[in-house]
Design a protein that fits this description.
Layout (H helix, E strand, L loop, with lengths): L6 E10 L5 E6 L5 E2 L2 E3 L6 H13 L6 E6 L4 E4 L15 E11 L3 H4 L10 E7 L13 H11 L10 H5 L7 H8 L6
Parallel strand pairs: 1-7
Antiparallel strand pairs: 1-4, 2-3, 2-8, 5-7, 6-7
């Protein structure tokens, strides 16, 4: 389902624990990390899609989370041509996303499961601080991640200016990727 402007409707999920750390999933067989996300099916509301994706990708049910908030409008990113499926070329530009900020009310060690789907998205996961460098996120998604984190930060009891410390760092030497990879324990 692609809209007339070439964007596929999608939801993104920023999941918080009790310490306001965020869930990061490591893309299966890749060295990139991302938030859970996925397409909105025909007839589905963004909220229904969010709960379905949450279950499929990390095994959480509605009773495991509470909705803290969501973005006011769609956030968009364009996908480079080399990443676009052949059958979508010409019609498809990228994704438009409604982002949800959720708080885990269940127990991560008991409730998070990366094997709920026959086609898992992630092969590892971890908690990380809310404001973290985004250089381990695929490059074309970084701007929308920053937009979502910044907009939804108003719902946290933290200083929204903290983000500049993480997003304005020169990571050309690969230091930023190592910092994200080294922080906190990775769960498999």
């Amino acid at each position: 389902m692609i809209d007339r402007n070439g964007y596929r409707p999608n939801v993104g999920i920023i999941l918080l624990n009790s310490r306001n750390e965020v869930f990061w999933g490591k893309r299966i067989r890749q060295n990139s990390w991302q938030f859970p996300q996925g397409g909105i099916k025909s007839g589905e509301s963004p909220e229904q899609a969010m709960y379905r994706e949450l279950s499929e990708e990390i095994g959480l049910r509605p009773n495991h989370v509470e909705i803290v908030g969501r973005t006011r409008d769609w956030l968009r990113y364009e996908v480079p041509d080399r990443w676009i499926r052949r059958e979508w070329r010409g019609n498809y530009k990228g994704q438009k996303q409604i982002w949800y900020l959720l708080r885990l009310v269940g127990r991560d060690s008991d409730d998070v499961s990366l094997r709920q789907s026959t086609h898992p998205e992630f092969d590892a996961w971890r908690w990380n601080q809310y404001w973290v460098e985004l250089d381990s996120v695929v490059e074309f998604k970084r701007k929308v991640y920053k937009q979502a984190l910044t907009e939804l930060s108003r719902l946290l009891k933290t200083d929204p200016c903290q983000c500049t410390d993480y997003y304005d760092v020169d990571t050309s030497a690969g230091v930023g990727r190592k910092a994200l990879t080294d922080q906190l324990e990775v769960n498999e």
